[in-house]
Amino acid sequence: MLEGVIEGVGVVRRNPRLIGTLVITVIYNTLGWPFTSMIPVIGQDNLHLGAAGIGTLASMDGVGAFCGAILIAFYASPPLFPRLYVGGVLVYLLMLPLFAVAASPLFAGFVLVVTGFANAGFSIMQATLVYSLAPPEMRSRVFGVLSVCIGIGMLGFIHLGLLAGAIGASWATATIGVEGLVALWLTRRWWRVLLA
What is the DSSP letter of 152? Predict the structure, then answer.
């Protein structure tokens, strides 16, 4: 397995577009996706929701993702794939501070629907781009590298948990959103090639 991952890393290193794809994956999984663990906390502490309200709020992300997936299936064409991928992560990260400061369940739910749409763009295009950019005989190995990049996300959950313990769930959620946007800006030389 390790040999396969090493071979996959070699393929990625020779392909700037694969590098850009995996950089975006790492940013999303460490500084974007972990915020979902704060939805129940913010729902209870800030929005004063009960169990049913928190469950409904948490489902809004799924509603947005479902609608986004349907729209992508019908209207997305290959030239749009990289823009949906990068744009999905950008919009997702922008929504985190908005969710953190949401004063009403309705606004918070709307923000989560938007994160769902954005997540659809990212998650669908993640596998699509890796599949289309990797040489056919090396796809399984490159998908192994992708799995490692996704697995790094556990560090993001730890980071967010420590932040929430130190400064509260809302501030921690807003902070990782800003950190993610800064990370996108700092790594633009790697992922910008996807949009060229």
Answer: T
Let me know: does 64 contact 116? Beta carbons within 8 Å.
yes
**Span 137-156, pLDDT tens digits:** 888 889 988 998 999 999 99
Dig out the tokens for 165 from the structure: 């313990």
* Residues 194/26, Cβ–Cβ less than 8 Å: no
pTM score, whole prediction: 0.93
d(CA 150, CA 87): 18
Of 116, 129, 139, the closest CA to residue 86 belongs to 129
The DSSP annotation for 20-68 comes to HHHHHHHHHHHHTGGGGGGHHHHHHHTT---HHHHHHHHHHHHHHHHHH
Taking only the tens place, the pLDDT of each residue in 54-88 is: 999 999 999 999 999 999 999 999 999 999 999 99
CB atoms under 10 Å from CB of 135, counted, come to 11
**Domain formed by 2-191, architecture:** Up-down Bundle (1.20)
Give helix 169-186 / helix 81-100 axis angle, nearest 10°: 150
